[in-house]
Amino acid sequence: MSPPITSFDSLAMAVDAVPYAKLLGIQSREDNGQPLFFLPFQTHNIGNTILPALHGGVIGGFLETAAILHVMWASEAQSVPKIVDFSIDYLRTGRPAELYAQCEIIRQGKRVANVLMTAWQEDRSKPVAVARAHFLLA
């Protein structure tokens, strides 16, 4: 088992330890006492080169990974929660720019956590995508 995520420093180390997060280039920092995740723009994250637009799978994977890390941070978990279900609504085209995400745990019990995720680019009030997920806790 890995050590629990108890601080923003250990959250950043957890992001570095997750291969998919590393592949996408996900980073994190503190925002008003909560983790803020961001995905710097990289050309290999483009799905539609004609627009250009971020690949929907990259946006979904970014939100799912952010939620997993957020749950681990909030519960000081030592293991990765397992996803039970994930639902995403794409609201706008993800332009070739930095993408941000913030997560909110709506309800957490002993075994399951319900998380709401929001992704945006320049304006938090204009989300690119919102998602909901349930995670099975260890």
From TrEMBL:
Report the Pfam families cross-referenced here: 4HBT (PF03061)
Which CDD domains does the record associate with it? PaaI_thioesterase (cd03443)
- State the InterPro entries in the record: HotDog_dom_sf (IPR029069), Thioestr_dom (IPR006683)
The Thioesterase domain sits at 54-126
UniProt protein name: PaaI family thioesterase
Which organism encodes this protein? Iodobacter violaceini
